[in-house]
Amino acid sequence: MPNNLTPTEEISRTLPKDSEASILILAGEASGDYHAARMVKDVTDRFPNVKFTGIGGEKLEAAGMKLLLHYHEINTIGFSGGFGKLKKVLSAYNVMKSELKSGRYDVFIPVDFPDVNIRLAGVAKKAGVKVCYYISPQVWAWRKRRIYKIAAVVDRMMTIFPFEEKLYSNVGVSANFVGHTMVRDIPREVDKSLLRSELGLSGTDWLVTLAPGSRHSEITRVLPEMCEAAKLHLKHYPNTEFVIPLAGSHLKELVQDIVDGSGLKARILKSDASKIMAASDSGLVTSGTATLQAALARMPHVVVYKLDKFSWFLATKILMPLIMDSDIHVAIANMLSLKSDEGPDNPINIMLEHGYKVPCLECGRPLFVPEILQDKATPENLGLWLDKFRSDANLRDAMQKGFKRIREMLEPITSSPSPSDVVLGLILEKRI
Fold first, then answer.
1. If I label 93, which of 2, 32, 64, 188 is the partner at 20 to 30 A Cα–Cα?
2. What is the pLDDT of residue 77?
3. Using CA of residue 291, residue 200, residue 62, residue 256, what is the dihedral sign?
4. Contact 399, 365 (CB under 8 A)
């Protein structure tokens, strides 16, 4: 590639604008639907004749992908939930397997969801379909030897965390850190008053986000605890407004029933969760992508995580000693802090320098964002942190500095290809 051309310019120069291609995607959860939708839009804006089909959600469908199935039909968490949906997962797998063998597709893009997607990548490889994995399975956290299975079936890996690129390159996988979609979508600075006005929220009350996740099972376990914590906070601070962002319209009835049953007055909004978080003063967030939304939106927050008892026992007593990293954490901001250089601008060190040691209640080591897990995720423990965020301006200032550093870690590198560049590059390779 000529040194004076960016990856985007090189693709545009080499691939004819009217090029046709068919791409199959499997995004098995809300976060994958979000990331892949941005990539699909970018590709089709540049090359309108590239067609997308697959499993995803509302965002992928809105971006122009033809849905074979909605991801909520196969999305689950925990082992007991997985058994209940096993039949649907197997059915979806067979649908995708048949599509890959049909000869209609140039590229398969598996998005996270590794237990199904790694197997389908193998099917695609045998069928002569290029495989471009988007959002790496967390091989650095658990089942590390999966990286060799991935290397055998993937043509390109697009990572959204910077340290992952080297992991894959070291085992011979062509990998690119492409930046994190949320950095592009969540602005550095916002006008909270304007955002609240747009969302129809109070401009004067202290605003707290309750983000219970995108899966039925986690919402059922976590949202009742969040609601009770909110009620405890109201006893000390009655001028508080609570808002709950919906991860999907299919969750409205479930969330409404839980809120009504708790007696908490809370607004349930379908608006973008990151906007709601950016407009908020603090929050309670279920583990997963929402934890990064909260960090990039610069909302002081607690990360809450609960599984069914059997899954928790299996994960902590059996799987963790065997196949999980001994220092695994559920908040993405904590993971990034632990994987980055131990300099003064590390978010954990920023907190320590401001006089705050946020302890991991499981292992005792300092973290950046508080994590409250399983039996410790009580209304009292959650409410305690809501009170701290409300009363301690120095704590909020320390977290703001850490959030700024998290954003810097995830910003794309100018000289590196974008997700659409990588996908279009594979189409180009297939044409040559």
1. 64
2. 52
3. positive
4. no
Question: Six-digit token pair at 242?
Answer: 């609570």
Indicate the burial class of 249 (C-beta count within 10 angstroms; 0-12, 13-18, 19 or more).
Answer: exposed
Mean pLDDT by 10 residues, the chain (432 residues): 68 87 94 94 96 96 97 68 71 96 97 93 97 89 83 96 92 94 90 93 92 92 97 97 91 97 96 93 92 96 90 69 63 91 91 94 87 95 98 97 96 89 91 66
CA-CA distance, 235 to 270, in Å (whole number)?
28
Q: Which of 119, 175, 124 has the alpha carbon at shortest distance from 149? A: 119
Evaluate whether 51 touches 63 at the Cβ level (below 8 Å).
no
- Phi and psi based region of residue 50 (left: phi greater than 0; alpha: psi -120 to 50; beta: remaining): beta
Question: Residue 202: how many CA atoms within 13 Å on its side-chain side?
Answer: 15
Q: What is the bridge-based pairing of β-strands 156-159 and 66-70? A: unpaired
Nearest to 402 by CA among 355, 359, 345: 345
Residue with tokens 């997963």: 288
pLDDT score at 234: 97
* The model's pTM: 0.83
Counting Cβ atoms within 10 Å, is residue 253 exposed (0-12), middle (13-18) or buried (19+)? exposed
The pLDDT, as a whole number, for residue 256 is: 97
Task: Compute the distance between CA of residue 7 and CA of residue 415 in angstroms, rounded to an integer.
Answer: 7
Domain 192-410 in the same topology as domain 7-179+412-431: yes
| Max CA distance (Å), the chain | 68
Q: What was the pLDDT predicted at 144?
A: 81
Q: Which residues contact 102 (CB under 8 A, 6 or more apart)?
A: none
Q: What is the pLDDT of residue 272?
A: 86
Give the amino acid at 337: S
Report the C-alpha gap between 306 and 231 in whole angstroms: 20
What does CATH list as the number for 192-410?
3.40.50.2000
Nearest to 304 by CA among 356, 374, 351: 374
Q: Enumerate the domain spans of the chain.
A: 7-179+412-431, 192-410
Q: Which alpha helices (H) appear in 75-188, and where do they start and end?
A: 79-84, 86-101, 114-126, 146-153, 162-169, 181-185
